[in-house]
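haha ok so turns out i had the wrong file open the whole time. this is the CORRECT one, sorry everyone. sequence first:
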Amino acid sequence: MLEKTKLDMPIVLTRLREHKKIKDELMFHINNQDANRIYSDSHEDLDITRCDWNVDREVPRQWLEVLRPHLAIELDNIYKELGYSKYDVKNIWFQQYATNGVHGWHVHVDCQWTNVYYVDMPDDCPQTEIINPYNQKEIIKVDVKEGDILTFPSFVIHRAPVNKSNKTKTIISFNSDADIEGGYYNE
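then structure:
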């Protein structure tokens, strides 16, 4: 059996300050973006109503142009608070969950951080859940609201539970890496 040392795990919950200002324009562009349904006939816990993950990266994403300057300000603050001097967003995409939409337990690979921005989060839509990595049994419901940005280590198992609401939830997810400048490993 592995000996575990329990350390605090960084989970950051902050708000996009300009959310109310850009939400309508962002939603307009997301709703008009090329997108696909992502689902599995063999796994009932994967049914993302609309997503641009599989859309060619060369296809223009006007929603990203609207979001980018506002998100950069927040990410500068998030990673500075965590002790990093630089970061890199590796992938960014949107996901929409209509009634019965779901994204089962998963992790994000080839990155250090998972980030979720809640663009449209009606009150009766389900919140992100994560599994406590220390005991693998406790499910933690993260109390997120529209306009929030959630950042956590990419190895943390998480999910978007089934949306039983008749309203659609829209999020923007992205993977990122962070680093320090002038550290011992950069000499």
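The helical segments are 19-31, 62-81.
again sry for the mixup
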